[in-house]
Amino acid sequence: MSSNLAALRIHRPGWWRSVTAAMVAVLPCATATAQKPPASDAGKPKSAARVAVERRYAMAPDASIRVAGAISNLRIIGWDRDSLVITGTVPVGWRFDGGAATPAAGPSRGAKFYVEGTTEISPNGAALEVRVPTRARVWAKSGSADMDVSGVTGGLDLNIVGGSVTVQGTPRELNIESMDGDVRVQAGASWLRVKTATGNVDVRGGSEDAGISTVSGTVRVSDGRYERGKLETVTGDVIYEGAVGNKGSVDITTHSGAIELRLPPKPSLELDAVTVTGTIENGVTSSRPIPGREGRGMELGFSSGNGDTRIVVRSFKGNVALKPR
């Protein structure tokens, strides 16, 4: 008798020192004759068969919900119901477990779920859709996963190694950590923190307090007003074209990444830009950069309009360009 084995696929779960410090199968077909015992299946992938899962609970509107484990696709949706509904599929033989905390009275205020794979390697982990109360706080963590979140106005804490994270809506707090996966925030957050190693970051929609850091990923910030912002990369480029809030400030720091500021034709702000060895180009105002104080690099400073907002740019080797928006 013969058995076809699926391909094995393994997911793989530093102006300057401060910046640097901030960062850190096809198996041959095995054939057994009728006279020979079949080969052991231990440690080998089973079929791609999947089993459906479904859980439903009554939850408090601001409940805390945790989802973690071997999840390859996770969709989180905030809805205007005081209930938690989880649907999806997991590979046969995998464990999906957890539940809601038992309340003393009324609906549950917390729930925790996890997916645990077996020793066999599956091409895909769990695929789950999680519907939560709009004001819920959600914590989700996986290895290589695509996470898509919408409609949640409470808090979000999302963590992946590879894959991607996309957040739509306006959560009160948003914290995202990713190694290789790209991050897209499409509608802003009051309090925002994003950290990646190589993943690119695209933030839109504005924030009262935004902090973004990456080692080599590209950071793009646009479409909204940012009251306070701190953007840091090592080698990654930064493109900033967002507005700065009244009396707000944005600090941008790189080691060797290029920095591009896209400003309105008549900006109302105070700018302070310095490079150690990089160049500075100003295509927005009549102010010209001057050589650096030690004879290398460049400096550019100007105040235009009422100068009630401030942008500070620092780069060691990266070039800085001001361009009209």
Describe the structure in your own words.
This protein is mainly beta. The protein is built from one helix and 28 strands. The strands form two sheets. It has a 26-stranded mixed β-sheet that branches. The chain has a two-stranded antiparallel sheet with strand order 1-2. Strand 25 (290-291) and strand 26 (298-304) form a beta hairpin. The chain is elongated, with a radius of gyration of 25 Å.
* Low-confidence regions: 1-46
- Percentage of residues in strands: over 45%
Q: Give the SSE order as H and E letters.
A: EHEEEEEEEEEEEEEEEEEEEEEEEEEEE
Span between N and C termini? 68 Å
- Gyration radius, in Å: 25 Å
The major pleated sheet works out as:
26 strands, mixed
What secondary-structure arrangement, pairings included, does this model have?
Blueprint: E1 2-3, H1 17-22, E2 30-31, E3 50-69, E4 71-79, E5 83-91, E6 95-100, E7 108-116, E8 126-133, E9 137-141, E10 144-150, E11 155-160, E12 162-167, E13 173-178, E14 182-185, E15 191-196, E16 201-204, E17 209-214, E18 219-222, E19 225-233, E20 238-240, E21 243-254, E22 259-263, E23 269-275, E24 280-282, E25 290-291, E26 298-304, E27 310-315, E28 320-324
Parallel strand pairs: 3-7, 3-9, 4-8, 4-10, 9-11, 10-12, 11-13, 12-14, 13-15, 14-16, 15-17, 16-18, 17-19, 18-20, 19-21, 20-22, 21-27, 22-28, 23-27, 24-28
Antiparallel strand pairs: 1-2, 3-5, 5-8, 6-7, 23-26, 25-26
List key phrases describing it.
disordered N terminus, 325 residues, 28 strands, 26-stranded mixed beta sheet, mainly beta
Give a quick precis of the structure:
By secondary structure, this protein is mainly beta. The protein is built from one helix and 28 strands.
